Amino acid sequence: MSSRPPIIINRLDAERLQRLIDQADDKDRFVADCLEEELERGEVIDPEDIPEDVVSMNSQVQFTDLTRNRQMIRTLVYPHALATTEDGISVMAPIGAGLIGLRIGDEIEWPLPGGGKAQLRIDAILWQPEREGQFHR
User: What are this entry's molecular-function GO terms (predicted)?
Assistant: First the structure.
């Protein structure tokens, strides 16, 4: 796999994500393993220190799937919040896991189950909890 851009992760998000990874069942194992790699290589910092251009949990993100030449707007959520988030994408979905910690302008080649890959680019962060002062949501 090509090199991945550096990522920054909110400390509370990292703790919650680690719990999801630890509890993942067989059907989520592929994504959980990819997400765990990201947590291990990411810079984990306090919520108050998250830059405004970083994708954190509950951020509404405009991104392009360069593989399919398709731009999307999705809110990155925990699996339990999918039902109540109209434009939600789960962090435990292959594409959702690839978004965490990226900055505006970053591109990442992200593995998909079955051996495929997606090339993703962060175009904008339309809403971010930390930017709005919501550090403990």
Answer: kinase activity
Which amino acid would we find at residue 29? R
Tokens coding 126: 């339309």
**Distance in angstroms (rounded) separating the CA atoms of residues 119 and 30:** 18
Q: What is the pTM of this model?
A: 0.93
Rounded (10°) CA dihedral 104, 62, 65, 37: 60
pLDDT in tens, 40-76: 999 999 999 999 999 999 999 999 999 999 999 999 9
Measured CA to CA, the distance from residue 46 to residue 92 in angstroms comes to 22
Which are the contacts of 102, defined by CB distance < 8 A and separation ≥ 6? 5, 7, 54, 55, 108, 120, 122
Token pair in block for residue 119: 């090339």
